[in-house]
Structures are given as C-alpha cells and as structure tokens.
Design brief:
The structure holds two protein chains of two kinds.
Chain A lengths: L1 H17 L1 H21 L7 E7 L4 H12 L3 E6 L4 H8 L5 E5 L3 H6 L6 E5 L4 H24 L19 H32 L1 H6 L5 H30 L8 H25 L3 H17 L12 H6 L4 H15 L3 H28 L3
Parallel strand pairs in A: 1-2, 1-3
Antiparallel strand pairs in A: 3-4
Helix pairs in contact in A: 1-2, 1-9, 2-7, 3-6, 7-9, 7-10, 7-11, 7-13, 9-10, 9-14, 10-11, 10-13, 10-14, 13-14
Chain B lengths: L1 H6 L7 E9 L6 E10 L4 E5 L6 H8 L7 E6 L2 E2 L4 H6 L1 E4 L11 H11 L4 H15 L14 H12 L6 E5 L7 H14 L5 E6 L2 H4 L4 E6 L2 E6 L1 H6 L5 E5 L2 H13 L3 E7 L2 E6 L5 H7 L3 E4 L4 H8 L9 H4 L10 E12 L2 E12 L3 E5 L6 H8 L7 E6 L2 E2 L4 H6 L1 E4 L11 H11 L4 H14 L15 H13 L5 E5 L7 H16 L3 E6 L2 H5 L3 E6 L2 E6 L1 H7 L10 H18 L1
Helix pairs in contact in B: 5-6, 6-7, 16-17, 16-18, 21-22
Classes of the chains: A alpha/beta, B alpha/beta.
Chain lengths: 366, 583
C-alpha cells in the first residue's frame, strides 16, 4: 500500500513541477502576495492631504490648526479662505477631509460653553476617511482637554501597545500572511490536482488501477502539505529576517497546528477538485472559496464586528482558526491550551472534508 | 474563371495549392511539407491521412486563417491569406470539434449563424426550411444542440455551414464520432450538394471514405503521398491483392509468418480470410507454400495502395510476446457480465447486458456513439458502478473486491492519457508502483517493455513529445506492466495510420497467444473485423452477438453475396428498430 502511495506522491510532485503552469502556480502567487500585502496593503493612512478652514481668530482655533499641521499622517495642510472652497477641495479629491473651525470657537470655550469643530470627510474613501477622522478626533480632543482644564495641554493618557509596541502594521500582516498564503497555495495545488487529470484523461487511468479512494486522497494531499509547509516556512523566514519581527512562541507548536490547518484546506481543495471537470472550473472554485475565506477570517476586518449568524458561519473557515494561532504564536507566545483550542476545529473540518472528497472522487467519474 | 480560360487552354483550377510548407515555429518540424494539389468545383476532394498528417493545418490555410511558411494557396488565382476577407464570404467551414453552441437549441444555433452571416428576411425563412428539410432536423428544432446524437450534431453543423450557399465547403473530419448510418446519410447529403458552383473538401482518416471522393490528396506526416482520383491509385494494386481462406482457429497464428516473408507487403485479418498484399512481381506459388489454404484474387482497396506507399506493413513480429508470461487457462470465464444495467435518472444507458469472455479471446463491444457500449465497458473496468447486475473480472466481483479486480486488468484509454510532462521511464515506474510491483520486478518489467516496444532510446524523453505511434506504444506498455489477465481497450486505433494499426494488432494477437483476454469497444468496422466475437450494442441493449462472420452471414443478401461489416451493422440496427416498433 505504501509503495502505491509513494509512487503516486512522486508522480504528483513531478506533474506539478514539470508543468510550466504548475510551476507558475507554485512560484508566482506567494511572491506577488508578499509584495502586495507587505508593502502596498496597509490600514494606516499616510501621505494624505487635508484642508483647514479656520474662521476663528482666537488661540484655541490656532491650537487645533497647529495640532493638525504637526501630525505626521498628513502630508500637506491647505488653508482655505471661505466655505465655498470646501466643496471644490473635496470634489476634486484634492484633500480627504476639511476641518472647519467656526468664528466663535475660542469665544465659546472662554465662556465655558461647548464648542464645535466641523469635520467634512470624503465618503467615497470610507476606510481611509474613518481613519483620518480618528486622527483628527484625537487631535481635537487633546485641545479640548487642555481648554476645559485650564491653560496647559494635558498629557493624561499614555497608550502602550503590547506585543506590537510601535504598532508596526507589518507585525500584524506578516504572521497573517503565513496563514493566508499557505491557504492560497494549498487550495490551488489540490484543487488543480484531480481536475488536471480529468482534463488530460489520466484520472480514469488512476481509477482503474488498484489504488483505493483513500490512497488516492493521501497521494493527492501530499503536494498540498509539502508546498503549504514550504510557503509557510518561507514567510516565517521573511518575517523574522526580512522584517525583523520577533518570533515569540514555539515553532514546533506552530508547525503542529499548521499540519491540521493544511489538512483542512486540502480537504476543501479536493472537494472542489472532485466536482470540477476542468482546471478552469477548479481555479474558479478555489477562488470562490478563498476570497470569502480571507475576508471572513479576521485578517481584513474583525470577526467581532460581524453579525452573529455570520460569526457562527466563520467557524467552518479554517483560516479563521489558524490565523489566531499564527498571530498568537508569532507575537505573544500563545499558550499551548489556546493553540489546541483553535486547532481542534481544524481537525474536525479535515475529518469531514477528506472522507467526503474520497467518496466523491469515485462517485463523480462518469 | 471564364476569363482565365480565354488565355489558357485549360481553365485554372478553383483552388491551387502550390508546394505549401507550414511550420509552426521557425526551426520546428513541418506540419505540411511541400504539398501541392488542386481542388475543383463540382467535385468532392478528400483530404486523407491519419491523425497528425496535416489535414487540419491544410484546411486552415484554405480558410486563409493562417499563412503558409512557403509556397502559396491560390483561390481563383488570389492568395488565400491576403484575400481572407473576400474569401470568407464564399466559404463554408465546419471545424473538427463541434463548432456550435451546445446550450442553444437547433433553431437558436441556426438563427445565430444566420445573423452572423447577415442572412435575413424572406431569404432566411426559405433557407431555414430548406436546410431543416435537407438535414432532416425539422422535428428537433427545439432540442438543445448538446443533446443531439453525434450524427445529428454534424448535420446541424453542416446546415450552419451551408446557410449562405458557399462556393467552397470545408469539412474537417465530419464523420468522426458518427455512427455508420448517419455517416452514409452525411455522404449522400454532401453528394447532393456538389454541383457546378460548389467545391467540397472532406478531410478524413477513414480510408474507405477516400474511395468515395472524386479526388484525393493523401497526406502522411505532412508529406504528400498522392494527389488525384482515388481509383487511379487503387488500380495500381490490381493483381497484388489476395484472400487466403485460412480456418478461423489458425488465422491469427498464420498471419505472422506471412508478414515476415519478403514477398508479402501486408497481411491482415479480414472477415473469414486473411487479406494479402503482395510485393510487386511476387511469386504466387511461393506464397502458396507459406499458407495452407486456398488463395483467391481480390479487388484492391485504397488502403492497400496507402500501405504500399508507406512501404508495407510491419513484419508481424511482436517481441512483446516474449516479454509476457503465459496465463494458465482452465477454460473459465475471465470477464463476466450478468444483467449489467446502468440508469441515469430515468434514462437507461445500458440494460441487462450479459456475456462471458474466455481467456485469450478478443471480444468487441460494437455500437454507435451513445449506444451504451462505453457505459458497459466502464462498468466492467470499475469506472462506473452498475445500477443493477453483476460484473466479474478474473473471478473478482467488481462490487465487493473492486481493487483486486482492478489489479488484474490493464486499461488503455481512447486518447493518449499518460502524463505528458514527465519522461517515458517516469510514467512507467509510476504505473509499476501503483500496481504494487516490487522495485526489482518493476525494473525488470520496465526494461522488458521498453525493449519490446523499441522505446529504449526514448527512455528519458518527455512522454508528450513522443511521435503519435510511440505514444500509443507507451500507453500499451503502461497497461501491460503488471501482466494483466484482461486488457481493456477503448477505441484503440481510431485515427491512427494503417501501419501503426497493424503493428498494434500484431501485439494484441501476440497477447492472446499468452491467454490474455482483450475487451475492445469500437465504432470502427475495421476494428470489429479483428475480434473473435462481437457484442453489438444499440440503445443500451445487446441486439446481436457472435463472430464477425456469423453476424455478416445473418445479414447476407438474398443472392448469397457477401456483405461488409458495415452493411451487417446497418441491417442489424434496422431490424432492431423494426422489432422495437412492432413491440
């Protein structure tokens, strides 16, 4: 039996490596993802322009303006002269936000009344403008804290970000990439494996051999595991040595959890492959699975913000569970119990999908 | 054309192909190598040759879609590539792969192509009704094109190509996948079409179709072998073709020594005799000493001439036989089908198929596409689970001991289905591993197979780059590594050249001598002739069973004259339909 499986594994690896398309699938996406995620994709807002329309002649209005000018997030701060210029500035996308300080701003503060600053944001860039809004709010609240406590700017709140003291975005992305890239590689490699053989007509040849469905599944899983581990390792090395991200936890625990993660993904990949007649369908199927999997993993947006039923639905997403492990082990030495708790669902997913794939492979032949 | 005839005594041919060479890469092999010929209006010109001969490449040059590397294709004196646009108005082209939209109905397909060709108004209605009547598709206008039978698809394709009555009709292998009945209908339809205003090019790998053409252009490996009326070529073989009536039991054994003799160019099984093609000036009395049977002259066929041009058949030796050990034969059945039935929803693809096959026997499942022969075949090699009934291979039940049964059968799919990106040796060692051969044994078997099929020089060649004939050898080698007791062949030699086909069947003959049973599916009458027994399947049922001779005898004409396998097939199908109608 092992001789049969070993032959199949060797053949699978050769088939992927000797096929130029197969090689491209292995080599191109991870490098592309590395560039995109590590350099281009960031939740921070930098290098944006902003406009200020200050009708207030008092010192508090000036303080707000100075605070904005001093913020490193904003590239250029444009001073506007009249309300009519606001629309033009936003419409032409010259600036992402306009801060409008009314002429009674200082007067109301001095009088002990509440004073308002109007912030106009470009809603077309909803994500970035939300972030700009929070920067602006922080600046304004510092001014107001000073204004109502008498005289000097207070320095009351000191924020310490544990596990990522400088809030480096790469510290968040790269461990996440270890999880997402291995998902993409593994799902594509396995989804293509059976579909490629169907297309070439070699799958019938396999099915008439003494190979049993389970042996085919084991043989077809191997390349996914091997390439999943290779890519995972590559990104761990890039994170540690390229981006100087400290690796806090146990590498062994991460690799152990990754085994079940990859099996879960392979099971899904083989299911996709089993129902695809062509490689094109398989690729399409892989993306239909992979894009929501990445979006609903907590990598792009927090799961806690999703509606309750969707939070439950994310339980079948292997990436959701492994992301916790990858980021946890990387940045804060996640305790073994927590790793096990997040790995357990992966075991369940693999146990459901792999036998289902084995059954479907034989069923869906004609 | 009439203008040209004023100046020259002989009118210019409609299409003139002048020493055309086509290479797909600058230093690559020539898909067409200095091919010349003419295509005349009012004639069917056959573009004849096996797969890979260059037929489709030449057709694409005729459509002006690709440009010759050397030489030129002149249509009414104008270069085809340069005058593409003008050319497409007078062209009807039916590509090899069904070029219609399977998700549209027959009528929607017609409407779409009519729109594309700018056919509208009253003229469109007239053309539609004429074509639907002509192709006998009027009853099926609402059926999806994908749900049509092979023959009906080709008729619809033909109708679409005929929408704006073309002056040059190019048909790329229209009879592939078409049952014999529809094939005859297609021929008579095209025969009706040809007149003084239309020239037809019919590409085919079937040599019997070549005989029906007015002119042929015979290609092999891109090289032109002959251009002209087929009968002229066939006639050169007159006096060299004989039938030797060898008793059936000795027939297979008698072929090899005949092929080995220097005075015999070719020998094949043909009905109840061996068909011999002698070399020029062969001594008939010498041949009589080779075979202990009556030898009578026979009419030559186009295929004889083709084989002769290719320097004769193989020498009949099969080193393969030496590489296979003999299976014991206790007279038991090695393949058993008992009431095999396969239903898909409420459609029964195969119904109550029952037969047994002995060791060393070649059994043919013959039938048109979609008749159920492939379903039966798939059930017996374990690719499809039967809905009902029982199948056994080498004594193992396909349901309860499927893996054991599969370990005892060898399988060769219709199209080359090995791993094209890996080497010959890697392909073989993969299959050796999958069939559980020990490393030592695998090495021995692989060497033996490489040797037997002359594949040793190609050991580390990538399988996909092998020449066509060698691909087929490799596929057979892979299927035989584990010395199976039964060999399953799915349309093994359709489209291959006659020499490769002969070579293939000489291997199969050698296998039967080692008591390997061979189960073949085919819709190809010539392959049926090679079988010991035939199971004729039509609409999911066995409608006739017996030796090829017995089937032919059951349909013999009233005057006792011999009928061909194709005649017998058509007759038996017609009878079954009558019974069906009567019941």
């Amino acid at each position: 039996m092992w001789r049969r499986i070993l032959s199949l594994i060797i053949k699978e690896m050769l088939a992927i490596w000797r096929d130029p398309k197969g090689r491209a699938v292995i080599l191109v996406p991870p490098l592309l993802q590395l560039v995109i995620f590590a350099f281009a994709m960031t939740m921070e807002v930098r290098n944006v322009d902003i406009a200020v329309l200050n009708h207030d002649t008092g010192n508090w209005g000036r303080d707000v303006e100075a605070g904005i000018q001093g913020a490193s997030a904003f590239d250029e701060v444009i001073g506007l002269q009249s309300v009519s210029e606001i629309r033009e500035a936003i419409d032409s996308q010259r600036v992402i936000a306009v801060v409008h300080i009314g002429q009674d701003f200082t007067r109301r503060i001095e009088a002990g009344q509440s004073a308002n600053v109007q912030i106009i944001l470009d809603g077309r860039k909803s994500n970035a403008s939300q972030i700009v809004n929070s920067y602006l709010s922080a600046i304004i609240s510092r001014v107001s804290a000073a204004a109502y406590s008498g005289g000097t700017m207070p320095d009351t709140i000191r924020i310490r970000h544990w596990y990522n003291p400088n809030l480096e975005y790469a510290w968040f992305t790269l461990p996440g990439l270890v999880a997402t890239i291995t998902l993409l590689t593994t799902i594509i490699v396995t989804a293509l494996s059976v579909a490629r053989e169907r297309e070439l007509g070699t799958f019938d040849q396999l099915l008439v051999s003494p190979l049993r469905p389970l042996e085919i599944v084991v043989g077809k899983s191997a390349p996914g595991l091997i390439f999943g581990y290779l890519h995972g390792t590559f990104f761990i090395l890039v994170a540690i040595f390229g981006f100087k991200i400290p690796f806090a936890g146990s590498l062994l625990a991460l690799y152990g959890s990754m085994f079940f993660y990859l099996l879960a993904v392979i099971g899904i990949g083989l299911l996709i492959s089993a129902i695809s007649a062509t490689q094109q369908q398989a690729i399409l199927g892989a993306f239909v699975f992979a894009s929501p999997a990445v979006l609903l993993s907590g990598f792009m947006s927090p799961i806690e913000n999703m509606p309750g039923w969707m939070q439950i639905a994310t339980q079948i997403n292997p990436l959701r569970h492994f992301l916790v492990v990858a980021q946890g082990v990387f940045l804060k030495d996640l305790p073994l119990a927590d790793i096990a708790r997040n790995t357990f669902p992966l075991v369940l997913i693999a146990m459901a999908t792999l036998p289902a794939a084995a059954w479907l492979l034989r069923k869906k032949t004609s | 054309m009439s203008d040209a005839s004023i100046n020259s005594p002989k009118p210019l041919p409609f299409v003139q192909i002048n020493a055309v060479t086509k290479r797909f890469s600058a230093n690559g092999p020539a898909a067409l190598d200095a091919v010349s010929g003419t295509i005349e209006t009012g004639k069917i010109t056959g573009l004849v040759g096996p797969d890979g001969a260059g037929k489709t490449s030449l057709i694409r040059l005729l459509t002006g879609l690709s440009r010759p590397s050397e030489g030129d294709v002149l249509i009414e004196g104008k270069g085809a590539y340069a005058s593409q646009h003008h050319l497409h108005k007078m062209l009807g082209y039916m590509p090899q792969r069904f070029g219609l939209y399977e998700d549209l109905s027959v009528m929607e397909n017609l409407v779409l192509f009519a729109d594309l060709k700018g056919l509208s108004g009253e003229q469109r209605e007239e053309t539609f009704s004429h074509l639907l009547k002509f192709t006998d598709l009027a009853r099926f206008t609402t059926r999806l094109a994908g749900a049509l039978s092979g023959g009906m698809k080709q008729k619809l394709g033909l109708a679409c190509a005929l929408l704006t009555r073309p002056r040059l009709l190019l048909l790329d292998e229209p009879s592939v996948g078409v049952d014999p009945i529809s094939r005859r209908e297609l021929w008579s339809m095209v025969g009706e079409l040809v007149d003084d205003t239309m020239a037809v090019v019919w590409a085919t790998a079937y040599l019997d179709e070549a005989e029906k053409c007015d002119d042929v252009l015979l290609l092999s490996n891109g090289k032109p072998l002959y251009a002209g009326p087929p009968a002229e070529l066939t006639d050169t073989m007159t006096g060299r073709v004989f039938l030797a009536r060898v008793p059936q039991a000795e027939r297979r054994a008698a072929i090899a020594p005949l092929l080995r003799d220097a005075s015999v160019a070719d020998a094949i099984l043909h009905g109840d005799a061996i068909r011999l093609l002698t070399r020029e000036d062969a001594d008939l009395s010498h041949i009589r000493t080779l075979v202990n049977a009556e030898i009578v002259p026979a009419a030559p066929r186009f295929e004889d001439a083709f084989v002769d041009r290719l320097a004769g058949g193989p020498d009949g030796r099969s080193p393969l036989a030496d590489a296979m050990s003999r299976h014991a034969d206790a007279g038991e059945a090695v393949v058993e089908a008992r009431g095999l039935t396969k239903r898909y929803g409420n459609f029964t693809a195969a119904s109550n198929i029952t037969f047994t096959q002995k060791r060393g026997e070649i059994l043919g499942l013959l039938g048109p596409n979609g008749a159920g022969k492939s379903t039966t075949f798939k059930m017996l090699c374990g690719l499809t689970e039967p809905s009902d009934g029982e199948g056994r291979v080498a004594g193992f039940d396909l349901r309860t001991a499927a893996a054991d049964a599969r370990g005892r059968l060898g399988y060769m799919a219709q199209k080359f289905s090995l791993y094209g990106d890996v080497s010959v040796a890697q392909n073989l060692s993969f299959f050796a591993g999958v069939y559980g051969l020990s490393r030592q044994r695998a090495r021995e078997r692989i060497d033996a197979m490489l040797e037997a099929f002359d594949l040793t020089p190609y050991r580390s060649t990538t399988a996909g780059q092998l020449p066509l004939g060698f691909k087929q050898r490799l596929a057979l080698a892979a299927a035989l590594l584990h010395e199976p007791e039964v060999l399953f062949l799915d349309e093994p030699t359709s489209g291959v050249d006659p020499i490769t086909r002969r070579e293939f069947w000489s291997h199969i003959n050698a296998l039967t001598a080692k008591n390997v049973a061979v189960l073949v599916t085919t819709h190809f009458m010539e392959e049926a002739e090679y079988c010991d027994r035939i199971n004729l399947i039509y609409r999911g049922r066995t409608i006739a069973e017996g030796t090829p001779e017995a089937l032919k005898a059951s349909c013999s004409n009233a005057d006792g004259s011999v009928v061909t396998m194709e005649d017998a097939f058509i007759e038996l199908v017609a009878r079954s339909e009558q019974e069906g109608a009567a019941a």
